Fold these 4 entries.
Entry 1:
Amino acid sequence: MITVTVGKRGQITLPRAIRKRAGIQDGDRIAVSLEGDRIVMHLLGKTLLELRGSIPVTGAQDFDAIRQRVLRSRAERAADEG
């Protein structure tokens, strides 16, 4: 177990070994919750805005048509399960 000290403003520094093992990098976001008597940290993934442009596409995208296909697919799946 590694211990850290809480600073005046409530800040802590995550030790390098923990950051490395968890794959935490500069700018990553972490959610903090209280579960009973434990403080739990969850590494958050990238937001959609941060992922923008990470997948190469060719040509223009019709997002309305894509949304309609997704909605139809979900409706069909729900109907099959019900």
Entry 2:
Amino acid sequence: MSASDKQPLIAAIEAGGTKFVCGIGRGPHEILDTHRIETTTPEETLEAVSRWLSKAKAEHGHFEAIGVGSFGPVDLDPKSETFGYITTTPKPGWQHTDVVTRLKNRFKVPVGFDTDVNAAVLGEYLWGAGQGIDPLVYITVGTGVGGGVLVNGRLLHGALHPEIGHLAVPPPVNSLAVQRECQCPFHRSCVEGYVCGPAIARRWGVRADSLPLEHPAWEEIADVMAHALMNLTLTLSPRRIILGGGVMEQPQLIPLIRGRLMHHLNGYLLIPQTGREIDSYIVSPGLGARSGLLGSLALGRMALDASR
């Protein structure tokens, strides 16, 4: 029997506002199968997830737990009546959706549940660009903006969970955007309202992946992100910040963000991370697009260990 055979089989679900990515495996080097499901209504999407998990179980064997990293906000308080729910999300139709109870009732196994970005920071901490790094922050910039935080080896929960995408930032100065306003329906000037994919498309009149490298939008996006990273650097004092998501795949963006962060800090922090080590302080994910799914698998393993 190989070492990997000794590891329990876990089902993982990265539940995003655009797509659900499901997988089954034993660890980062043994993912047996994956499947993408478009996010539509809760009933349709969760039923499609359950059908795929049943199929995966028939093909690969009994999985011992399920890990879910979900878009939010979500209720992570085990004592709450709505634990395992997606709560006040702006995603139409998904408000107050019970994810965990449905999966537990269907498959009769422990279910680990957290935000998609907390799952991603956990995956990066265990197997990616954050190995041995603590405190660690992961931010994804895509359909929305979210952030996960790991401190003292544990995912950060509190009254809720980190909502980094809605940190207040100064409005961009002298913006050349065709629509200058913040696109967040809740706030007048927050990170997500300026730099998530849909906000970029509305503000600049073109999708982010269609903007040329020299377009002024990138300088503005970098400046907004740098304000957010300055706030996180000053409040959490992380040892590394990982930037993922589709928008961050632009090769010029992370170097621009590093430069703007140093500009905004203006020499205040005399630490290597915001000086000569800035290139290893603000980095891309080591796991690429797999951070959330692998982190969800780790959540399932943690739920299994807690149940024994």
Entry 3:
Amino acid sequence: MVETDNTAVKDEEKSEEYVYNIKVEQSGPATRKVVVEIPQTRIHQVIDEQYRELKRGAAIPGFRAGRAPQKLVEKRFASSVKEDVRRQLISESYQQALEKNKLQPLGEPEFENPDEIKLPETGSFNYAFTVEVPPEFTMADLSGLTVKKQKLEVTDKNVDEAMKNLSEQQGTLEPVEDRGIEEGDYILADVHVKLGDEVVAHRHNAQLVVRSGRVAGIQIDDLAQQLGGRKAGEKHVITVHVPAEHPQKEIADKDVQIEVEVQTIRKLNPAVIDQPFLDQLGFANEQELRDALREQLVNRFESEVRRAMHQQVKDYLLEHTALELPAKLSDRQRESVVHRQKMNLLMSGMPQQQLEQNLAQIEAQASEQANRDLKLFFILGKVADDKKIEVDDAELNGYIAMLAAQRNRRPAKLKEDMKKDGTLSELFINMREQKTIDELLKEIKVEEVDGQDQK
């Protein structure tokens, strides 16, 4: 096993750094191969140093400390000394290779034939390893970018819709037994998506709101008309054409049958916004509630506008920056994205068998997303380094405190959990990237345009 650490490279006798024979070669995109040659004289020098140190403190029966014969010390400790010297030489030369060639590894080094890296009986000690490093690239010229900023204003109609949503969210669901389905009902149903005779997706105990929306990931605008009048226990088949851009290529641009078997029907009784309701929420009157909802909408609109502006900057940087990624790092990132997507699909109800059938498509999408994420990581990281943009502990802890309040958790415990599952580092990177884009937007031309959709 090959190990590395940060041991300083010092020749104890001469009190100066020993310079190893190191060659660095290009070995693929953002990858360097490092070849190290350690001459026999250096091996003997370090071995002699080890024995001198051992002899000073070695406890050998029959001899006082430091008085044992050199040959006896060498015979007794030869095996351990040889291994210690091997480790020391690798550690020193590895660290020197990184420092003198300004290499910044993105992960652990990959040693060639690690089991064969042993001290020779005679001659020089040679080994080689490869490391992935940040890619070199030229930043895109942002002078050609104009970011469009949507002008979104909160209207009374928006507030009325928010009041209606709040009333529905705080409402109650009442079982329906004396009639069929009506628009706005909440139903529990078994859903099967079929392509011909083959079931390509199914979800049991799916909760659906009977209005325009998605069923099993497929948009159905006339769901209320399709299911209107159906009662519990009845089954209805909806034929719908799946858009060509649908992510599940097996059914994209094809007609499928969505079989909905109704189990239960419930109707929504919205909460009445009266004084007891307002008291429960802590508002003196309805106007106070409307003002609070308006403020929430303003914050939400501002957040959406900012997100859209950020996306324009990201898209431009990706399109106008030529950057080759290190292969193994891309593979690791792709595997991470694939894992997340598979878990999301399983949690959304996609059967394991169907997921495996679509694995190639999932992996292709994941590869594209992984490459985008990695390229943005390097591009925005370079900008942040150049502009000395950082996220300090106060900012990070403040954001964690906000997340903890939303989830009704203690900030310290949430932070500890985020450390364990790796999301803390992801949060740090995300916050740094957001700050970086905000800084770039100060230098980019921004054009304000009327908002098209304020729903």
Entry 4:
Amino acid sequence: MKKFIQDFPIHIKKSISDFKDFEFKFDQINKIIISGMGGSAIAGMILKDIFPELELVIERNYFPNTSIDENTLIISCSYSGNTEETLSYYDYAARLTEHVIVLTTGGELLKKAKKDGIKYQLLPTGFPPRSSLGFSLAFLITLFDKNVIDDVNFEYLEKFSKSCSRENSDVNKLAKKIHNTLPIIISEEDLSSLGYRLKSQLNENSKMLSYNVTIPEMNHNEIVGWENKKISKSDFSLLWIHIGWPKNLDRMKITNEILLNKVALSYHITTPENIDKNLTSLFYLINYIDWLSYWCGKLNNVDINSVKSIDILKKKIS
């Protein structure tokens, strides 16, 4: 896992050239649905935050929960190609529109795409699905805008990722403060995908319970739940992700003051001032939170690659 996380910027850079020839005409499309589960869905969630102007819906289900017509594009994502929810969704959705793209390494989903004459893009094999994010995200970004990724400072990102791999790194120091807590991750609405990514990575890599919420919404309900006198200060930590809106910065400051005696630590994960304010910043944050989950896993002395409970569930339900 360590090598996969360190090479995240390289995955993106490599994928730009690998996927540059994939073309799709959007002139007839008025809605985009990305269907996938777990690590295969997160790229779509991030894409939605990058391009809020797109009519984009993320579906993580066996069947459609949104309307589909002949002008809808379905992007069906399953790294293994055998995710049962995604296969079921494909069977429902592919009958309703001719505009379908499959993103996978193979499996039953690729067989269906070839049989149905559907456009598909193959991802590199040999990765845990959650570690293939750089490839799937690069594909989706270049599918919608081939130029937006041109200004990314990959040299900066590669140096940063390498620095995070060291035991004396700042991200490892943060991991030492939170690995014995249940982290509550707070992001703004327009970066909710990163909150979800960190929650999921802590679940899978670190074997930690965690959950993510957004601000200002959490100030309208959850903050009252913290009034419970049974809460132990050592049990929880607050991780804020790149809060930037002025009123939300005020809310973060006041919330930290209110919860001062309720949490072991409150920490704001954000980008350095000297970083380019483009996708470089976004990729920096993704890499940072992945490293955070890695170091928490090491400190918890767990098998970071293993997802034992998922494997058991899949075996029993198949």
